[in-house]
Amino acid sequence: MASLIACPHCGPRPREEFSVRGDAAPLRPAPDAAPEAWLAYLHARENPRGPHREHWRHEGGCGRWLVVARDTATHEVFSVTDVQAAARSAAREGRE
Amino acid sequence: MTAFRLPSGGRIDRARPLRFTFDGRGFEGFEGDTLASALLAAGVGVQGRSFKYHRPRGPLTAGSAEPNALVTVGTGGRREPNVRATTLMLSEGLVAESQNRFPSLRLDLGAAAGLFAPLLGAGFYYKTFMWPAPFWEKVYEPLIRRAAGLGRAGTAPDPDAYAKRWAHCDLLVIGAGPAGLAAALTAAAAGAQVILADEGETPGGGLLDLRPGDGPDPAGMLAAAGPNLTVLPRATVFGWYDDNVFGVLETVGKRRAAPDPHQPAERLWRIAAREALLCAGADERPLMMPGNDLPGVALAGAMRRHLNRHAVAPGARVAVATNGPSGHALARDLEAAGVEVAEVVTLDPAAPPGLAALGRGRVRGMRVDGRRIEADALAMSGGWSPLIQLACQRGARPFWSAERGAFLAPETPGLTPAGAARGLSGVDACLGDGAAAAVAALSRLGLRAEPAFPPAPEDCAPPAPLLPFRASGKAGRAKTFVDFQNDVTLADLARAEAEGYGDPELAKRYTTAGMATDQGRCSGVNAALALAHLRGLAPGEAALTTMRPPFAPVSLGALAGPHRGAHFQPVRRTPLHAWAEARGAVFVETGQWLRPAWFPAQGETHWRESATREARAVRASAGLCDVSTLGKIEVTGADAAAFLDRVYCNGIASIRVGRARYALMLREDGMVLDDGTVARLAPDRFFVTTTTAMAGPALAHMEFCAQVLWPGLDVRMTSVTDQWAQMAVAGPRAREILGRIVDADVSDAAFPYMAVAETTLFGGRVPARLYRLSYSGERAYELGVPAAWGPATADALMEAAGPGGLTPYGAEALAMLRIEKGHVTHAEINGTVTAADLGLGRMARREKPDFIGRAGLARPGLAAADRLTLCGLVPLDAGAEIRAGAHVLNPGEAPSLAADQGHVTSATVSPALGHAAALALVKGGAGRIGEEVVAWDGLAGTSTPARIVSPVFLDPEGARLRAPAAEAGPPLPPPAALAPTPALAGAGTGRFGAPGAAGLRLTVEPEGAVVQVFAAPGREGEAPLAASALPCPVRFAGPGRWLVFGGLAETPAGAARVDMSGAWVRIGLEGPAAAALLAAGTGARLDAEAFPEGASILTRWNRHALSLARLGETRWEIAVSRSRALDLWEALRAAGAEFGGEAVGP
Ligand SMILES: [Zn+2]
């Protein structure tokens, strides 16, 4: 019926403005990583009851890819962050 | 006056009589009556027949919990069954019928179902299924279908509109009884934004049931409140959802005999509240005694409401049996109104008497321990059940409070029960509790509030719960109903318990107790008490069943809201829509798009006739096809080439400027995601196309790659689908025709196959892009012009071709042409095929270090010999047809999963070949050319012998692409009418909706240049881009992205830009109702604090994607992509009808 996601760029918006892709944990392996690594990336997913980090996209708003940390049982949202902005600031900090 | 209408008093307006009919008979009531009260006043005590046994029933309650008095209201498309007569406000001319009776309410033959009662007992669904199937199908089910059930829905379309609305507030108060009023007033006085929602016609709740002077006056209380208190009457809060969003159903015109045609029937609110108080009150519990469903037996509180609010006496002589003060209060008020009270029996839970209601068809009295009390009305009160359903909808379990003798809701963050909803009794106690609850809720928000009412003691100690009563003799053999609406008796529960289904959840399913439209409001607690008693447990040890939304019935119309009929989903129209419409095009829906499917010529009656003619014209002369729906994305940035090289499986970085390439996008698992073309406009600027269907997913995928997988790359995507009117001009004469209007040199030397040029038309009059691409296999070009120039350009092309030289063709002819050439669409790219499966294996450049799908492609299974691969099929009998969806079998094999060789993905009757041609995915198909198979169509019941052939049916060498052709014709003089077409040409204008002062004004902003500006990476938040310091309107388009309207002479330092002129259309929205219209579609906060003047957002309004800017207190600007503009305009007018407005066209 309804629920709100607080987009870091747009503020709280109805869930209908967002789409969910799924688990944000798997990291894309290096191109020549072992087949097992690719197999895990392609197919292996945790389905936890409780806290979970997922990729969501604010397609009805800013269009950004976000990491929504939420509880899958209660849908309590702990944090919503912009993936690229977080990666870039981490990269900058790494350089400094 | 009738016998039951009191001569004075009540909250009815005796100066305004209202006529209505019930079962065709005329009656009169008053303004302020419900249907139930007006009928009771007229002496109609039987208002419905029960679900299973067809027992005569009168109103048990006087409110929304009513299980008995369910009627069908309205006629035609407004016919609505199962309306509670106790909440249906009377209106002039109302038409109501009773339900579940044949032939009449008084004489109901179906009541004979009572004779079958032993068959219809608990668990009968399950038991009767054990009977022989023919008996069930032929005898039992038809019998039940005829006998049982409630009202029948109408079949005519509902003529009314349904609205939606979002709201945000600090405090939502649910229920406007004493606790709710006190809470709302307390919070509003503290300055909080408060919404007070109440199901009643007027706020007040139980206060309205008191005699004048017995309690505070709700209207007077609310008169002093400020504008930060919004009162929503006739609004039922039915659901509590995540993030403290509440679903609320507001009744507006629904069930009124003559509704205002401009007002919606209902309005579905979604209210996001920082805190909420549940002040919904409590439901009175019926007594579980034999005969408790007799007409004339009702809850004491209900009788008191009918007496004091509606001035209706329950009878001439009223008996009362009560647990707690409710019955005594009724008796006092009855006596004050001059109605005789036979006796008040105070029930002692510790020493319950034998108790039964007496009568047949109507209550005649009560038996108490063998003593008979004569009465023509019997009031009962078994105590009160707090309305905790909302608080328990999100997983919290109710708990039994022995102290309160009731189930209560546990503490839950965000929603707190107060007053009677947490078991308190007495007006003063509830006033004080509501005020205190509001103070506490506001303090959680950091706001200080002063209670509007002081704490006060309750008016009595809570009564202990009552168990089922027994009575001796004949009276004791009458049924004791627990769930009145579903006709579930105490005996049914006992049987369920005896048969092992005594657990409340099992008993519910076994007996259907609590499964009726009232969701167990009258029965839930009594069922739990009865089950505990039957199982020898203490009260409360049998739990309530799980509570789920909705708390009250919600109509499908309200849930659908504006999304019905023409506005079921947003509609996108291409720039050439009206152009095609004027040429008689028949349109087909593709996602949200409307595309021309074929253009019937005079005398053509079948689509295939038209499409065949169009396809032949393309191969013989030239055709014009609108391909504007293809997704178009401009990819820019220093790393654009490197990025696209990783996104597509084939080589992109090697494309030269001014050239295009067919390209395949894979999923990470190696399967094909989409295909399209990539054109390089500059070293760091690409124009890529996607298929129509995958435009959205492909862009989301590319954004995922850029933002998540490779966040460091300097690359940006801009969807420019709406910017261009894109026309395919295909056929041997294509160059000759195009050359007459295009300024660029279109000779093969200057503009070979796969060339791309940014050019102009008519000597620089119209900007254009020209691509030499072919989908049909013919010499073909795609011409893109700014959307507004589409119709004029199409006209010019037609003129340049001369009569009959250029034939508009639609999606059907396009499909014929591409099947003949073996080109794939998403019929083939179905998510399970690789590039190699499609015969495009060489496109995947494994030597590239990385691309999406590279590792996935290496999976050994993808190289298996029996994979389904693309091939062609032709019938052995040239006259036979093959249909898409047919399965491919080896000759002589019976159809089975094991024998399945694949299936036909696309099929046509080829105009060029003169016989059927089909594309198929067949096991090892590409290597089986020449084999005979059978196309088996189980739906059509046909088996067609066919031969596997190459999927390229026509011109496999591609000679037609480059065949010599006439050079460019002589330049066409610019047509006199060469002019752009406004996006909103043809939009409805003038006054719309409700008459009177216009609440809205819709205008169209002039079209002009639009630029998307990007901040350099790492400088997303910097001024001056973020500020409105630029000399023209700047709108938020994402972090570090802005839409600049009206052109931008210079790109700000450190920024990049992409022209999007024409892709966006701006609509002005102004007026006192503007914010309400916006809130009808978007859940974004629109208040001045969250959305100040000058701010802009991207959001969705009723599924329409748009940008919204606030220009003034009541002045807004909506920017919408061009293809959606006309549909949005019409949707705004439709949703704005309730406010009345004026639309000013372009
Ligand atoms: Zn956003």
TrEMBL record, chain A:
One of its GO terms (molecular function) is sarcosine oxidase activity. Pfam families: SoxD (PF04267). GO terms for biological process: tetrahydrofolate metabolic process. This is N-methylglutamate dehydrogenase subunit B.
From TrEMBL, chain B:
Keywords: Oxidoreductase. Residues 478-561 form the SoxA A3 domain. One of its GO terms (molecular function) is sarcosine oxidase activity. Residues 576-847, 1058-1145 form the GCVT N-terminal domain. Residues 870-955 form the Aminomethyltransferase C-terminal domain. InterPro entries: 2Fe-2S-bd_N, FAD/NAD-bd_sf, FAD/NAD-binding_dom, GcvT/YgfZ/DmdA, GcvT/YgfZ_C, GcvT_C, GCVT_N, Sarcosine_oxidase_asu. Gene3D superfamilies: 2Fe-2S iron-sulphur cluster binding domain, sarcosine oxidase, alpha subunit, N-terminal domain, FAD/NAD(P)-binding domain, Probable tRNA modification gtpase trme, domain 1. It holds the Pfam family Fer2_4. One of its GO terms (biological process) is tetrahydrofolate metabolic process. Residues 170-344 form the FAD/NAD(P)-binding domain. SUPFAM superfamilies: Aminomethyltransferase beta-barrel domain, FAD/NAD(P)-binding domain, Folate-binding domain. The keyword Oxidoreductase applies. This is N-methylglutamate dehydrogenase subunit C.
